[in-house]
From TrEMBL, chain A:
Gene3D superfamilies found in the cross-reference section: P-loop containing nucleotide triphosphate hydrolases (3.40.50.300)
Gene Ontology molecular function terms on file: ATP binding; ATP hydrolysis activity
Keywords linked to the UniProt accession: Antibiotic resistance, ATP-binding, Nucleotide-binding, Transport
Keyword Nucleotide-binding among UniProt keywords: yes
Gene Ontology CC terms, in alphabetical order: plasma membrane
Transmembrane spans: none
BP GO terms, sorted: response to antibiotic
Domain ABC transporter: from-to ranges: 5-231
Family recorded in the similarity comment: Belongs to the ABC transporter superfamily.
Protein name: ABC transporter ATP-binding protein
Compartments in which it is found: Cell membrane
Membrane topology listed for this record: Peripheral membrane protein
Organism encoding this protein: Spongiactinospora gelatinilytica
UniProtKB/TrEMBL annotation, chain B:
Alphabetized UniProt keyword annotations: Membrane, Transmembrane, Transmembrane helix
Record's keyword annotation contains Thylakoid: no
Record has Repeat as a keyword: no
Name of this protein: Polyketide antibiotic transporter
Spans through the membrane: 21-40, 85-103, 124-153, 159-182, 189-207, 235-256, 292-314, 341-362, 391-415, 427-452, 464-483, 503-524
Length: 307, 530
């Protein structure tokens, strides 16, 4: 399977600040890829480099087998983009903008346009200046989704949408996947969205990739939270390797455990006699927070085998 | 796949957006061209009058600079002499605004990102903008030529004139294209374009006023005058403009090919980290609008200086028979003194300055529609205090502008043709006496803003345009509607002349202004805020 996007060692500096500092990103064809990172991590800069609007200072970027800067126009025929902050021409109506963007991309599916207008509940006759942020977002989404692009680049596409419309968005992305030929790069802060939609995720911070892999693969890297009611006060738990943040109140204990230490720890618990056990896998949110909080980014870790 | 990909739809988009703007520019250019033909016919009907007029022009450097040095006593030459100075500049101005509007302003607004993510070449937006701007210039030039032929002028000269008008737009479209690549943002791109236009105009003006021809050949605006329509039609000068525009455009494409979206050649400057003096509505309004006031003050000072520069000529002029001067004199009820002339110029400046409060009220409305006012009013600052802050800056700013006009005009006039101790206070008082009338125009806009926010822009512009058109400036020029009692400046007492001024009209104007302001603010307080 060839990759729709492959970026290695990407560097982009604005004056003295390095917005991208050796970023890596690989998105396989047909997958929905979550692109996560705190504000200012370089998500939008990466996307703009991929769209050929910024020229990278170093590193390589390939998009659909082409060079994003040199072949920009040719590549844009095959992709559709929704910016995070959609601004439209105040005096044009939403319908006019959808047609314009569709025409610029080389035509759009009329039936699909009508269907999406219906599903997103958008009145295309209103002038863009009267639209709320969510409605402007819908205009850009409909224009992108009504196209037959093989790659969708979505920069926080649901910001401003209500939960109902978020669900409509998820449905349309899932439907697009069923065809199996459409790749989606989804930059988002809404982790539930990423968890339900994405096959793989890449987490970046300070312009570098800190994690990349399937959600299952990433979960291997993190800890499971455990709460246990024991028959007798636990002994020696704290000394076990892989146990973190142990807290005990009488016979009840709370702690986090590394995935590879799980077996040993559970054995020790059953020795003490387990009366009750609650185990929670790490959520994407915890994964996310762990990396957001971590000071001094690592050089980037990959779970390449997970794919 | 070519560099032109996507240009077609973008041209259509630009035309769709220009549909409410470009026709006005074209109308303005054609109307000015025709108005000057009518003006010459009305005021200089006979060859004798024309010769007198030429004599007047030749005897004064400022007038000579106004429309170019080479003028002949013929209707077509005189009419284009009068309109040329405006038409080339108007055409160039429209082109600068149009190119920046469809290139850099789109980038700043974030819309270029959306557009360029489609199958659109990197050059397409610039190409579309330049095509549309050039198209507007060309249409304006062509319409001017056709209108002048319709008015009975000779076809060959009319086409040369129209072509020169179009060529000025073309050169400045190219210049704006470069500025849009090099500048930090759309605002500075517009500033660079307009500064170049001003420099071109000043160079041309200086060349004609001084009789030194070489600065004229360096100025793109000068190239238009050098075509010499109706005289010997130097078509090759059009080639210079076309070539210069093409070279500039080539430079713009080179710059475009190597820069990032949203970035210019110069990096964005940093602002201050703190704002200790930004506390209340007045300091906020001052911070937001001080640069506009500074630009206005510079412009007013420039024109006041030019008006003073004309005063030695006016002295000579008063001894000659002239329909225009007689009209002015009789309307203003003055004897043939320099006073009438100076008061007339102060009024011209006052009518122009009355536009300042109008623009400021439109900015108030823009604060509201952009949602910025919403953010401010979400704090304990009330809507009335927010509006009052803007109005204080507007009112004091208007007064300051007229003070600048009076000071500069008075000082220079005293040095050239008068006496500092008596003339300066006279000019200063005369200029300040017009302030309540200018406030009154602004107050009409405030009422419109409070009562009919959606129609605010239309009502405001109309209020100012009617004031100027019905007023004492346009009236005497065309010998009609002079000094209509429907406009506030009609009631401005002539403090300028020695007769003791009547305070009553000023008090009445202030009362009307206060009533309009109060009504506007009351409506604003009770209406929905969008």
């Amino acid at each position: 399977m060839s990759d729709a996007i492959s970026v290695t060692g990407l560097v982009k500096a604005f004056g003295g600040t390095r917005a991208l500092d050796g970023l890596d990103l690989v998105v396989g064809t047909g997958e929905v890829h979550g692109f996560l990172g705190p504000n200012g991590a370089g998500k939008s800069t990466t996307i703009r480099v991929l769209l050929g609007m910024l020229r990278a200072d170093a590193g390589t970027a390939r998009l659909l087998g082409g060079d994003p800067w040199a072949d920009a126009t040719e590549l844009h025929r095959r992709l559709a983009y929704v910016p995070g902050d959609v601004t439209l021409w105040p005096h044009l109506s939403g319908g006019e903008v959808i047609d314009l963007l569709g025409r610029l991309r080389g035509g759009l599916d009329e039936g699909r346009r009508a269907e999406l207008l219906e599903r997103f509940d958008l009145d295309p006759r209103k002038k863009c200046r009267t639209y709320s942020k969510g409605n402007r977002q819908k205009v850009a989404l409909i224009a992108a989704l009504a196209s037959d692009a093989e790659l969708l680049i979505l920069d926080e596409p649901t910001s401003g949408l209500d939960p109902l419309m978020e669900e409509v968005f998820r449905e349309t992305v899932r439907e697009g996947r069923r065809g199996g030929h459409r790749t989606v790069l989804l930059s988002s802060h809404i982790l539930a969205e990423v968890e339900t939609l994405c096959d793989r995720v890449t987490i970046i911070k300070d312009g570098r990739t800190v994690e990349s892999g399937t959600l299952a693969g990433l979960r291997h890297l993190t800890r499971t939270s455990i709460q246990a009611d024991l028959a007798a006060p636990p002994r020696g738990l704290a000394d076990l390797p892989g146990v973190h943040g142990l807290r005990a109140e009488g016979e009840r204990v709370w702690f986090d455990v590394d995935t590879d230490a799980m077996d040993t720890v559970l054995r020790r618990l059953t020795e003490a006699g387990v009366r009750g056990l609650i185990s929670r896998p790490p959520t994407l949110e915890e994964l996310f927070l762990r990396h957001y909080d971590r000071t001094g980014a690592s050089g980037g870790r990959h779970v390449g085998a997970a794919r | 796949m070519t560099a032109l990909t996507g240009t077609g739809p973008l041209v259509r988009l630009a035309l769709r957006r220009e549909r409410a703007i470009a026709p006005w520019w074209i109308l303005l250019i054609v109307a000015l061209g025709l108005a000057m033909v009518a003006y010459v016919n009305r005021n200089m009907g006979t060859d004798e009058l024309k010769l007198t007029y030429i004599d007047i022009i030749r005897s004064n450097a400022f007038l000579q600079g106004l429309g170019g040095a080479s003028v002949e006593p013929r209707l077509d030459v005189l009419a284009t002499w009068r309109s040329g100075g405006f038409l080339y500049v108007a055409s160039a101005f429209a082109a600068v605004m149009s190119v920046v509007r469809h290139t850099r302003r789109e980038e700043d607004a974030g819309r270029s990102e959306l557009v360029r993510s489609a199958v659109v070449s990197r050059q397409a937006q610039l190409t579309a903008a330049v095509l549309v701007a050039a198209g507007i210039s060309l249409t304006a030039g062509l319409c001017t030529a056709v209108a002048l032929i319709g008015a009975g002028l000779q076809p060959l000269g009319s086409f040369a004139y129209g072509a020169a008008v179009a060529a000025a737009g073309w050169v400045f479209a190219g210049l704006a294209a470069v500025a849009a690549q090099a500048a930090r943002n759309a605002r500075s791109a517009t500033a660079i374009g307009l500064a170049a236009l001003a420099a071109g105009h000043v160079m041309r003006y200086v060349a004609d006023a001084s009789g030194q021809q070489w600065p004229k050949y360096l100025s793109p605006i000068g190239w238009g005058h050098l075509v010499r329509p109706y005289q010997d039609e130097r078509w090759w000068m059009l080639g210079v403009s076309i070539a210069a525009g093409a070279v500039l455009l080539a430079v713009a494409y080179r710059l475009l090919a190597r820069r990032d979206l949203g970035a210019g050649l110069f990096p964005e400057r940093l602002g201050r980290a703190r704002a200790p003096e930004l506390r209340g509505p007045i300091s906020l309004a001052w911070r937001l609008h001080r640069s506009l006031l500074a630009k206005w003050a510079a412009g007013v000072a420039f024109f006041a200086a030019a008006a003073a520069g004309l005063s030695p000529l006016a002295r000579d002029l008063l001894s000659r028979p002239s329909l225009v001067v007689d009209n002015i004199r009789s309307l203003l009820g003055m004897s043939g003194t320099l006073g009438a002339y100076s008061w007339y110029l102060i009024l011209i400046l006052a009518y122009a300055v009355a536009l300042y409060p109008v623009l400021m009220i439109l900015r108030l409305r823009a604060e509201e529609t952009s949602g910025r006012a919403e953010a401010v009013q979400a704090t304990p600052m009330t809507r009335l205090r927010w509006a009052a802050g803007h109005l204080v800056v507007t009112g004091l700013g208007t007064a300051a502008l007229m003070a600048v006009a009076g000071l500069v005009f008075g000082t220079l006039y005293s040095l050239l043709a008068g006496d500092l101790t008596t003339d300066l206070p006279r000019f200063f008082a005369g200029a300040l006496a017009t302030v309540p009338a200018a406030w009154c125009v602004g107050a009409v806009c405030v009422l419109a803003y409070g009562l009919l926010p959606r129609a605010c822009a239309a009502v405001s512009w109309t209020a100012w345009a009617l004031t100027a058109a019905l007023g004492q400036v346009a009236g005497p020029l065309y010998g009609q509607w002079g000094g209509s009692p429907l406009e506030p400046f009609h009631y401005v007492p002539n403090v300028f002349t020695a007769t003791p001024a009547d305070i009553l009209p000023i008090a009445a104007l202030l009362a009307v202004t206060a009533a309009l302001l109060g009504g506007g603010l009351l409506c604003l307080r009770h209406r929905d805020f969008h």
